[in-house]
Amino acid sequence: MPARIKVIVPIPMDAAGVRNRRAQLSDALISPGFVPEFAAVPWGAALGDSYHDMLLMDWTVFQAGISAEDEGYAAVVVDTVSDSGVRALRSRLSIPVVGPGEAAFHMAMALGKKFTILTMWPQWFPLYEKTIGEYGLHDRLASLRSIDTRPDVTELLAGKEEVIFEKLASEARRAIREDGADVIVLGSTTMHQSAGYLAGVLPVPVINPGVVAWKQAETLVSLGLSHSKRAFPSPEVGKDADIRAGWNT
């Protein structure tokens, strides 16, 4: 039986939007025996551009993931570099829960000394400041850089490649030249369409977080590893019924 991995999209969207998010995983990147199942939260944040939306993403991703183990999934991947809901889900679940931010940042540290998070607009900076602080990675962060362009979390970069790709490359070159970055991490899984272009024009590794998170989930499942329950203890008094009731209203 294949290992099903639930990939939670933290923004509500229609089936076409979910397919765009799914497109970050080509068939060649999916190992035999694994099946990704992308699902968007049915309500919640719009853009992740504020502390208001950060709270909604944490809560709705958590709601979407608490039943994953009971539903037979082998792991959960959260489809956002903000790693929304990851720690709460690790507390609730025993199966692996992977966040693209944590996976990408640690991959960057394995490939270089200092990394820059390259993103669409500065409104997303608080998302990275939160995770970088939680993971204690300030000393390895060269900079946060944006192209100051409002993102489209459903249509992604389609139709904007000629303008957006070069703007991203130009900002990445500044991060390398001025900030000392020797690895570039894309600041959103919604930017995956630019990864190949940037890897071809930049002199340093470019990390596509959604792909790294997926491969980490595959590896953890294959090795029979998951998060430590000493680090992420289960609640003594669970509230699943209340959470599910709220999910269904």
Explained architecture:
The chain is an alpha/beta fold. It folds into two domains: 3-100 and 211-247, Rossmann fold (3-Layer(aba) Sandwich), CATH 3.40.50.12500; 101-209, 3-Layer(aba) Sandwich (Rossmann fold), CATH 3.40.50. The protein contains nine helices and eight strands. The chain has helices at 15-22, 51-65, 86-92, 100-111, 125-135, 161-179, 195-201, 209-223, 240-247; strands at residues 3-9, 34-40, 75-78, 97-98, 115-119, 141-146, 183-186, 206-207. Strand 5 (115-119), helix 5 (125-135) and strand 6 form a beta-alpha-beta unit. It is globular, with a radius of gyration of 17 Å. The model has no long low-confidence stretch (mean pLDDT 95).
